[in-house]
Design goal:
This protein is an alpha+beta fold. The protein contains four helices and eight strands, in the order αββαββββααββ. The strands form two sheets. The chain has a four-stranded antiparallel beta sheet with strand order 2-1-3-8, with helices on one face. A four-stranded antiparallel beta sheet has the order 4-7-5-6.
Length: 184
C-alpha cells in the first residue's frame, strides 16, 4: 500500500513528465528514497479529459523502479497510445490522471476465482493477449461473463474464447488512485 504522500508524488511525476514533453524540455531526473517508489511492479496510466478516455498505457511487469515506470507510461499514454492523437498543450490543464499499481498476476483454474470490481483480467492464447484493469468492469457494470468476453475481444479472440483449452486466464489487483478520488 502506498501512502498518500507517495500517491501524490506519483501523480506529480505523471504531470511533470507530460508537461516537460509538451514544453520540449528535458525530463526531470526523478529520484526517491521511499522503498515503495523503488519497487519493481507493473503500472498503468489512464488519462481522461472531461471524463472521456484520452490515453491508457501500462507495463504489466517492470524492470525499473515504480517512479521510472510511472514516468515512462505517462509519456506513452499521452503521446503514443495508438487509439489517440498525441496530447496537445491546450489539453493539459483539463487532464485527469489515474494510476493503477498492479499486484503480481495469478493464473486461475476456475472463473469463479474472479471477483468483479476487485480483479483485473489478462487472457492469453499463443500470441494473443488482452488485459483489462479491475476498474473497467465496475465502470461498465459488467458481470463476470461480460468481463471475460471483453478481455477476449481485447486480445483479438472470439467472444467465448475464454472457454477454450489453451487459453490462460490471469487475475490481478491494483491500487488505483488519481488526481481525483483514491479508489483502493
Amino acid at each position: 500500500m502506498l501512502s498518500d504522500k507517495e500517491k501524490m508524488i506519483l501523480i506529480n511525476i505523471v504531470k511533470q513528465a507530460i508537461k516537460a514533453r509538451l514544453d520540449n524540455n528535458k525530463l526531470p531526473d526523478f529520484y526517491y528514497d521511499q522503498e515503495a517508489l523503488n519497487q519493481e511492479v507493473g503500472a498503468f496510466i489512464t488519462l481522461k479529459i472531461d471524463g472521456q478516455l484520452r490515453g491508457c498505457v501500462g507495463a504489466i511487469t517492470a524492470k525499473e523502479p515504480l517512479h521510472k515506470t510511472i514516468s515512462d507510461m505517462a509519456l506513452q499514454a499521452a503521446f503514443h497510445d495508438p487509439r489517440f492523437s498525441p496530447l496537445k498543450m491546450d489539453e493539459y490543464d483539463g487532464l485527469e490522471v489515474e494510476i493503477s499499481v498492479l499486484t503480481p498476476f495469478k493464473k486461475i483454474k476456475s472463473i469463479n476465482e474472479i471477483e468483479v470490481g476487485k480483479h483485473g483480467l489478462m487472457i492469453n492464447r499463443e500470441y494473443n493477449s488482452g488485459l483489462l484493469l479491475p476498474q473497467v468492469a465496475a465502470e461498465h457494470d459488467w458481470d463476470r461473463n461480460t468481463f471475460l468476453e471483453h478481455a477476449c475481444i481485447k486480445a483479438g479472440l472470439g467472444i467465448d474464447a475464454w472457454k477454450d483449452n489453451g487459453v490462460e486466464i490471469f487475475i490481478f489487483s491494483a491500487e488505483i488512485f488519481g488526481s481525483g478520488e483514491t479508489k483502493g
